[in-house]
Amino acid sequence: MQTVTPDTLHADADFIARLTAIRHDIHRHPETAFEETRTADIVAAFLDGLGLEVHRGLGVTGVVGTLKGARPGQRVIGLRADMDALFIEEQTGLRYASAVPGKMHACGHDGHTTMLLGAAEKLAQNPDFAGIVHFIFQPAEEGLGGARVMIEDGLFDMFPCDAVYGLHNAPKEPLGSVQTRPGPFLSAGDTWEVIFDGSGGHGAMPHTATDPTVPAGQFITSLAQIISRKVPSNDAAVISVGHIAAGTYDSPNIIPSRVTVRGTARSYRPEIRDILETSINAFATHCAAPHGVTARTIYTRRYPPLVNTAPEVAIAAAAATSAVGTDQVTIDAAPIGGSEDFSFMLEKVPGAYVMIGNGDGPDAAFVHTPKYNFNDALIPIGVAYWVNIVATELGG
Question: Which parts of the chain span the membrane according to its record (predicted)?
Fold first, then answer.
């Protein structure tokens, strides 16, 4: 099986036009986590039209299409795209902008879905490979762990894979540039909450109250010490505060009885994740005790770190090089602070995740913002990458 280039795909103008229309349609009708029914209908109908075996319902709205190669082979790989949108009011002014108030495809999952559909079509037209490909269309990547739910529903029991591959567009990066690395690539994404409880009281007589605002303030300013004094200097980690709630706006003369502080914690190794959880609780308790205040910590481990395996990174790099050239491929990229639930799949199966430049310039809107838009010029590049993964893995 031969690898392909985006230029080869561009020669099929009807193919590119049809994929672009699908992307715009999905963009105009965004669906958030576990509600991607319309999108799943589009995906399932498309795959069924190609003659693939189609399974629906894993992870509520997930879709898996299976294509068997024309040549005998035992190796099985999975290619994954995410389908869900975000709760953001779109401000792009595009003719195909979201028609759903308060929801938009602000992370490019409409493009990810479209590129994998395009690859399924090209591979179905020429299944000159040995083995099996599962096209995995996943719901609820944005915070609710759709990958984990699909796995719990039996994804890899029903569709065993020897390797899995995923990708994400990278705004501001050159079009088609590919970044990846073996080992930890994206961070674990955890949420923490500390609740400081005291008696509260009159602001003019603080000596009569146990005041939770003082230890809460000390706790917030002490968080940086966890990174500088508890985390080894050759490791990376982040703790950020994202929410503080206390008291009533109209009652500034009242010391509140409760202060709630919430935030995120990011790390790349299980040991560092343990340190962050233990230290946040310990620092909160130690800040609270001298003031007669109690501190209760809730630490929620959300997405694990995304860890690529070296052999599959080499395959991904070869596939990307065939699509965009050696100069566009980086295999020692710096770890990224964001999180991604493809990490759950990589805990079960070897694989590789790459970032592909969206080519929209340094001033472009970033993901998760109201003016972000996936670049249609990336569609043939992504299709070529996916086809080349199959050619590299199964086409020999």
Answer: none
